[in-house]
Design brief:
With 229 residues, the chain is an alpha/beta fold. Helices cover 31% and strands 22% of the residues. It has helices at 18-24, 29-35, 70-76, 100-108, 123-129, 183-205, 210-213, 217-222; strands at 47-48, 55-64, 83-89, 114-120, 133-138, 150-151, 155-157, 160-162, 167-171, 174-178. The strands form two sheets. Strands 1, 2, 3, 4, 5, 6, 9 and 10 form an eight-stranded mixed beta sheet that branches. A two-stranded antiparallel ribbon has the order 7-8. Strand 4, helix 5 and strand 5 form a beta-alpha-beta unit. Helix 1 (18-24) packs parallel to helix 6. The longest helix is centred in the last third of the chain and has 23 residues, at 183-205. It is elongated. The protein starts with 17 loop residues before the first helix and ends in a 7-residue tail after the last helix.
């Protein structure tokens, strides 16, 4: 981030193909991560605020200042149906930047959820609303509105680069970011991987061991593994 990227709102962004987003929504984070070459995962401290939360949509990115949620309100205007708000902060902060009132605003715009590398509050209300949030913390501490950040610029959220329009998928296993330019490629690779995993699952259910399915016995022997009766 450079200084001239503060106080900026980009109104026109290129979002991933909605059909590719829809296809990606059918797969789990682990499958997509593997299909994409084991890249794109956010840090594992990012967790759903309630059980069963799941998100898949195109990113509207938000750069926040510590303890200040002004840009959340600015970002609401830029949200379109199918978007996911992805919020990073200029420094580590755990304050409650987001609650049920902002969620009501985001939901009215058609947002599918929020990913935030900071804190949120009003968790019970958010769950009742069915508005999924993945966050770094849950914290009742409120915020102010005084310092500019930016909307729809590249951000680093929980260690991962997110560009406006990228596809963000979140479930109980974590959060993965798929660049908009490769959304179709990754969706097709995830579909292929899911099919292979289905075949493997059937073999495991029939009693086949991973030792044999993956031809592990010979390399284990070469590595020095010994069985003792």
């Amino acid at each position: 981030m450079t200084l001239n990227q503060l106080g900026v709102v980009k109104r026109s962004i290129v979002r991933a193909d909605p059909a590719a987003v829809e296809k990606l929504s059918k797969f789990g984070v682990a499958t997509i991560h593997e299909a994409m070459g084991r890249v794109g995962l956010m840090k594992p401290y990012m967790r759903p605020i309630y059980s069963g939360a799941r998100i898949c949509g195109t990113a509207v990115t938000i750069l926040l200042q510590p303890g200040d949620n002004w840009m959340m309100h600015v970002a609401a205007e830029q949200l379109q149906p199918g978007d996911v708000a992805v919020a990073a902060c200029t420094t580590d902060n755990f304050d409650g930047f987001f609650g049920d009132l902002l969620a009501t605003s985001f939901q009215a715009r058609g947002a599918r959820g929020l990913i935030i590398d900071a804190g949120v509050r009003d968790v019970e209300e958010l769950e009742k609303m069915g508005f999924p949030v993945f966050s770094r913390a849950i914290h009742a501490k409120g915020t102010i509105k005084a310092t500019l950040g930016s909307v729809n610029i590249p951000v680093i959220c929980a260690g991962t680069l997110v560009n406006p329009g990228d596809v963000v998928i979140a479930d109980a296993d974590g959060i993965v970011v798929v660049p908009a330019a490769v959304a179709w490629e990754v969706a097709d690779a995830a579909e292929k991987r899911e099919s292979f995993e289905g075949e493997k699952r059937a073999k495991f259910a029939a009693g086949v061991l991973g030792l044999d399915l993956y031809s592990m016995r010979e390399p284990l022997e070469k590595a020095g593994l010994k069985y003792i009766d």
